[in-house]
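FORM 12-B: Structure-to-Sequence Request
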């Protein structure tokens, strides 16, 4: 089920296997600026699990650390706990210090306690947040495409955290193209994360060193770099100059979203399919024999990103046709590449954009100025894929 939350994302899949067990996963749980519908979607999801006597959510995937993808994670966990439902594994992209800084620059709320800001402080902070929320493990997906900058320095072991009962919460690091599903249910959950290329990392680092002595690879340095308007201006200028030097369009968006986590979800048994309901008032469900592809906010309009993305899925032997593709970046032109739809040949393409208050059919007010119409027109041009528009105003632009 892809829930209707406006500008954001909240997806759930519940699989029942032949032996009576289940596999449940979530991909993203956030919305911005309007979170009202997401609250209702969380309630509907928890009620569905209770009705089916499901007591475990196996995986929660976070595509990237931005408010509109993660800001209601604590609310979801609280609702699950109150219903007696536990969560097992948090899956999210591993980020270098520089990539953490990029993501921090994009946040509206960088205060202590804000979930996105907490997840971007350090790997240790991610682990403790996960332990405090009740996860039993954390899986970091680490990109290794195009000589990723995350390989510039060897990755130090990520330390376990401990929950309130003293139970160890361990960390696991897996590469792009890895199937994270370790349950008995015959289901494939293959993840992809594109590490920031080494030349971008080096160029940005060099430019930033010319503007400040603060080190973005250190947590204290990152905190100071986003603490004041003056320091943020230096980081923004370094991002812009990096884009100019390396011909990266919209560098502040492209570089930040480069490391988004994508997910390929499908059955590995003819007896198991995506067992989700048909469309309801809270979202869109679709049952078919083929996979779902979740794309986060990947800037696939940039050829270099597309080629890295395609290389991961070539290596994992992932092709279409698929049930559904989530239009990258909510359907924005910043993520659009028609080759995505040609490769995966989806039955349905899902758009998760938002509409601001005051929107009418003749006066559309797009959240974050994100207008999906050009992408909708492009995808319609292929002729095969149906479009599902999950905005928050019940208006079809």
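FORM 12-B RESPONSE
SEQUENCE OUT:
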């Amino acid at each position: 089920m892809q829930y209707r939350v406006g500008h954001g994302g909240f997806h759930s899949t519940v699989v029942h296997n032949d032996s009576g067990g289940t596999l449940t996963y979530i991909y993203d749980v956030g919305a911005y600026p309007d979170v009202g519908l997401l609250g209702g979607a969380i309630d509907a999801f928890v009620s569905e699990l209770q009705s089916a006597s499901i007591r475990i959510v196996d995986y929660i995937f976070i595509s990237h650390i931005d408010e509109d993808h993660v800001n209601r994670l604590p609310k979801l966990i609280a609702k699950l706990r109150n219903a007696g439902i536990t969560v097992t594994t948090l899956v999210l992209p591993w980020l270098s210090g520089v990539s953490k800084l990029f993501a921090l620059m994009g946040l509206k709320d960088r205060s202590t306690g804000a979930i996105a800001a907490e997840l971007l402080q350090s790997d240790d902070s991610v682990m403790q947040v996960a332990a405090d929320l009740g996860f039993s493990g954390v899986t970091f997906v680490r990109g290794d495409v195009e000589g990723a900058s995350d390989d510039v320095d060897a990755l130090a072991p990520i330390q376990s955290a401990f929950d309130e009962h003293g139970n160890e919460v361990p960390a696991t690091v897996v590469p792009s193209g890895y199937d994270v599903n370790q349950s008995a249910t015959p289901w494939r959950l293959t993840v992809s994360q594109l590490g920031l290329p080494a030349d971008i990392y080096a160029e940005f680092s060099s430019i930033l060193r010319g503007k400040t002595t603060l080190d973005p690879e250190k947590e204290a340095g990152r905190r100071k770099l986003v603490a004041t308007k003056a320091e943020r201006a230096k980081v923004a200028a370094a991002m812009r100059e990096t884009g100019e030097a390396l011909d990266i369009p919209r560098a502040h968006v492209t570089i930040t979203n480069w490391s988004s986590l994508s997910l390929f979800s499908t059955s590995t048994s003819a007896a198991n399919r995506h067992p989700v309901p048909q469309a309801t008032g809270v979202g869109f469900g679709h049952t078919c024999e083929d996979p779902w592809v979740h794309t986060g906010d990947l800037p696939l309009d940039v050829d270099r990103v597309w080629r890295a993305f395609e290389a991961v899925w070539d290596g994992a032997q992932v092709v279409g046709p698929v049930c559904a593709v989530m239009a990258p970046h909510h359907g924005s032109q910043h993520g659009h590449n028609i080759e995505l739809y040609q490769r995966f040949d989806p039955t349905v393409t899902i758009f998760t954009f938002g509409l601001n208050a005051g929107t009418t059919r003749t006066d559309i007010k797009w959240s974050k100025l994100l207008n999906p119409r050009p992408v909708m027109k492009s995808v319609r041009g292929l002729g095969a894929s149906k479009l599902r528009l999950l905005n928050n105003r019940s208006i079809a632009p």
